[in-house]
Design brief:
Elements: H1 3-6, H2 22-33, H3 37-59, H4 65-78, H5 89-110, H6 133-151, H7 155-165, H8 171-178, H9 182-199
Helix pairs in contact: 2-3, 3-4, 3-5, 3-7, 4-5, 5-8, 7-9, 8-9
Length: 204
């Protein structure tokens, strides 16, 4: 790991992190653990958009993302009695999502399938309000270009970048999701940002 890699953390377009509702989510999951189905439904409704968006980016498109999201929540429900709040709930959720997304990518690769790039229906960056149409159009084009470039990254770099950029996860949590080390996560992010800058040089 070079000093350049260590200090290259947030050079590439970080966005505002989502609201940290971990305490609320953990409370809902603990109620679900005790058998409260209504609490689990509330948890699903509160998190499904973020989970779906993460899966879309991890698999490089919207095809199959909804099915994987359903599998994530099914696995959470089946594992509810073993749940312990030893980490942020989204770390656990994304760990499940990453493994399912990885399996899907590898299954598609074995079938030599063509991956579907994100479409306008895929979650995108929030657009600023009260901006002129030309600025909004340029922001939308940039957002789509970033999504396309992200989809072309190797799966481990794409997952690390998704969790860092869109979920604002600390290195330690990303390492837990990817089942690797913090230095390895920093290296993945460095290589991902370098690759994205090359792909998006016209926008820089």
């Amino acid at each position: 790991m070079t000093s350049e890699e260590i200090h290259a953390d947030d050079e590439f377009g970080d966005i505002a992190s989502p609201a940290d509702d971990n305490a609320r989510f953990v409370a809902l999951m603990l109620r679900a653990k005790a058998g409260d189905e209504a609490a689990f439904r509330e948890l699903v409704e509160a998190t499904e958009d973020r989970v779906y968006g993460t899966i879309v980016r991890m698999i490089g498109g919207v095809e199959g993302a909804e099915d994987i999201a359903q599998q994530v929540y099914l696995r959470m429900w089946k594992a509810r009695e073993r749940y312990e709040p030893s980490a942020k709930l989204f770390t656990w959720i994304h760990s499940i999502a990453y493994r399912l997304a990885l399996n899907e990518r590898r299954s598609r690769s074995r079938r030599s399938a063509v991956f579907v790039e994100p479409t306008p229906d895929a979650p995108a960056l929030e657009q600023p309000v009260n901006e002129p149409p030309s600025a909004l159009a340029a922001a939308a084009e940039l957002s789509q270009a970033i999504e396309r470039a992200l989809a072309e990254l190797p799966e481990d770099q794409r997952a690390a970048m998704t969790l860092r950029r869109y979920e604002e996860m600390p290195y330690e949590e990303i390492a837990r999701v990817l089942q690797t080390t913090v230095p390895a996560v920093k290296s993945l992010l460095f290589r991902a940002r370098r690759e994205l800058k090359e792909k998006l040089h016209a926008w820089m």
